[in-house]
Amino acid sequence: MASHIAPSVLTRAESHPIAEEPHRPRLLAVIRRVSMSLLIAVVVPAVIFYSVFVLAGVWPAIIAALAWSYGAIAWRAATKRRVSGLLVLAAILLTGRTSLSVVADSTWLYFLQPIISDSVVAALFLLSLASTRPMVARLAGDFYPMDRELASRPRVRRLFWHLTMLWAVLGLAKASMTLWLLQSQSLDTFVLVKSVSTLTINVLAAFATIGLAALVARKEGLLGPTRLVIAGLRV
């Protein structure tokens, strides 16, 4: 009897080949990726700028922060690692700030430009809400493997919309705070308070983003190890 059953079972098994679901990274892996991206693009340049500012003055600090951004991009390209959109955006903004400051020979203009750039970035985030791909959706692939099917899920689309709005509001808030500090504080106080406050806001907002994204990811089954599907059953 067993000899007659076995071939039929094998035949049915062969008709349902093993399929592998798309890889879904664990939450800790996503947090590590976000943390590393923030560290390279935001935290380290801010620390380098303030350290060099204290030791050598404002112009060396400006050049050192810019050199770090381009060095990080070159290193990731040379080692065939993906260059995050956040790092590229930070390098572009630093390049614009540095170029205009050098041409105008004005360090005050260097510190004024974040007000303009934060406002412009916030405006771009707000404008992108009217498109099919809000700005956060365009950057999400840096931190989580995205495809068209995943990005089109209703919960995921709402998440991208809300996170884009969050970062737009934060951009406007940072621009307003920076303008007030620039007008009311000495240069030394301005650099210290702005460096600490901006870094704190960005880090807290990043982890708030991770928290909201994790809630949606849990509901959508997007976190966890890869599973195998055999004959329609997960194992």
Keywords for this structure?
235 residues, mainly alpha, three-stranded antiparallel beta sheet, 9 helices, 3 strands, 3% strand
Q: Numbering strands along the chain, what is their spatial order in the largest sheet?
A: 1-2-3
Rounded mean pLDDT is 77
Low-pLDDT ranges: 8-21, 226-235
Count the strands? 3
Strand content: under 5%
End-to-end separation in angstroms reads 28 Å
Count up the helices: 9
The share of residues in helices is over 70%
H and E string: HEHHHHHHHHEE
Give the helices and strands, then pairings:
Layout: H1 2-14, E1 19-20, H2 27-56, H3 58-78, H4 85-104, H5 107-128, H6 135-139, H7 148-151, H8 154-184, H9 187-220, E2 228-230, E3 233-234
Helix pairs in contact: 2-3, 2-4, 2-9, 3-4, 4-5, 5-8, 8-9
Walk me through this protein's architecture.
- There is one protein chain.
- The protein has 235 residues and is mainly α.
- It is 77% helix and 3% strand.
- It is built from nine helices and three strands, in the order H-E-H-H-H-H-H-H-H-H-E-E.
- The protein has a three-stranded antiparallel β-sheet with strand order 1-2-3, with no helix packed on it.
- A hairpin with a 2-residue loop joins strand 2 and strand 3.
- Helix 2 packs antiparallel against helix 9 and helix 8 packs antiparallel against helix 9.
- It is globular, with a radius of gyration of 24 Å.
- 19% of the residues are buried.
Write a compact overview of the structure shown.
The protein has helices at residues 2-14, 27-56, 58-78, 85-104, 107-128, 135-139, 148-151, 154-184, 187-220, and strands spanning 19-20, 228-230, 233-234. It has 235 residues and is mainly alpha-helical.
